[in-house]
Specification:
Number of strands: 4
Helix content: over 70%
Strand content: 5-15%
Shape: rod-shaped
Radius of gyration: 48 Å
Oligomer: single chain
Number of helices: 6
Largest sheet: 4 strands, antiparallel
Order of helices and strands: HHHHEEEEHH
Length: 217
């Protein structure tokens, strides 16, 4: 649209230049004629030429040029409003994001205070959480872990993982249970053997014994 306005300006300038050239020629002609009838005739011719070159076409181009300028101004106004709206949306989004982050941090802080109180008021609560994490790491699923934490025995067949040795062993229909010691600490047992000792026994088997009993590493 701006390019069209520039083109219209160039065309208008060219036509005006042509008009001035024609006017100069006619003025010279008028100077050579008499001051009476010849002057009137030349003036009529000049007015006709001016009407032809400087009237209709020039006026039309001037109107088109003015219309293009108005359209360009309207477009610039729309762009400016769009930029303003986009900036307003960005500012609103930034404020909302900051507010959400502050709420999240506050919630995390509240949960941490609640957990700290729970650890102080219920020492066994922390031990239960620790044991839950251990059972899941060994290879028990959430349902089996829940049963163990409720004091139930769990019959298990499948792979068990030792973080200490970074190895797996295949357990065949073993019984898992949580047992408390005299200090009320929880320990996972496999077939009534502490799981750490049980892993040592499994990994201490020779390769031939491992294949015979169906255990894997």
């Amino acid at each position: 649209m701006i390019a069209e306005a520039e083109q219209a300006k160039k065309e208008l300038a060219r036509i005006k230049a042509e008009t001035k050239t024609e006017e100069l020629k006619l003025s010279t002609l008028v100077a050579c004629l008499s001051k009476n009838s010849a002057t009137k005739t030349a003036t009529s011719v000049l007015n006709g030429v001016n009407s032809l070159f400087g009237g209709n076409k020039v006026n039309r181009l001037e109107k088109e040029n003015a219309q293009l300028h108005r359209e360009v101004e309207d477009l610039n106004d729309q762009i400016e409003r769009l930029h303003t709206d986009m900036q307003r949306l960005k500012d609103s989004h930034a404020r909302e994001l900051n507010r959400t982050n502050e709420q999240h941090q506050q919630e995390v802080s509240n949960l941490k205070r609640i957990l700290d109180k729970a650890y102080r008021w219920f020492p066994s609560f922390k031990r239960f959480l620790h044991m839950e994490r251990e059972c899941l790491q060994y290879g028990f699923n959430e349902e089996q872990t829940g049963k163990l934490l409720h004091g139930q025995n769990v019959n298990y067949s499948g792979w068990l993982h030792s973080n200490e040795y970074r190895r797996n062993v295949l357990a065949d229909n073993v019984t898992a249970q949580l047992i408390r010691d005299e200090k009320r600490n929880l320990f996972l047992h496999i077939n009534e053997t502490p799981i750490t000792q049980w892993f040592m026994e499994q990994f201490g088997l020779s390769q031939s014994q491992t294949r015979k009993k169906g255990f894997g590493l």
